[in-house]
Write a structure and sequence with these properties.
The protein has helices at about 20-65, 75-85, 95-115, 120-145, 165-170, 175-205. It has about 210 residues and is an all-alpha fold. The N and C termini lie far apart (about 75 Å). α1 (about 20-65) packs parallel to α4 (about 120-145), α2 crosses α3 (about 95-115) and α3 packs antiparallel against α4.
Amino acid sequence: MKLPMSGIGDPDQRAPRPDLDAWADALRTAEHGRAYRRSGRGLWETAQWPVAAAVVVALALLTYTRNGWIPLLSGADLGVHEFGHLVFAWAPTIWVQFAGSFMQVALPLVVAAYFWRRRDTFAAIVTLAWAAESLNNVSVYIYDATRMVLPLFNDDGSGAGHDWHNILGELGLLGSTDQLAYLVRGLSAALFVAALALAVHGFARTRP
């Protein structure tokens, strides 16, 4: 039995020729897009370090010229601080009092460590500066332990809810209030310096 041969050799039945010009245009477009994305990434890899340094310096200036209070950011610190009290509500009273200040510094440090582990150095620098700001906020709170002039959240005006007055009083350290406050502020400054050093180091690595 013979197979029908109709259609073989018929120009209308042949496979269409590939449009090589269209393929070349598509390849050029794809390569241009990849080159554009590479150039964008390369630009940010250099620019992120001056941006990070500027954020650190700006945050440090705001921190040390506003008595430890920065709009929005310090409000977030306060929220984390109160959350710390709630998390440790089961613990002895002195732990609950300390937990607020501990949490507001520990959280940004943990977030900074997370970004550092993921090799997102820019985010790690910014959150390290946040920890430095929050630590200075704690130093202001400690300094007030013997002065009792800061307006406190949910305080009836008696100062009975002043965490650091109660902590240092319980430990018999109220006489060392100022020294402790200056120590914590010094640690805050050290964190700012560390964050700025990371930004400078990152920028230096991008230089030829």
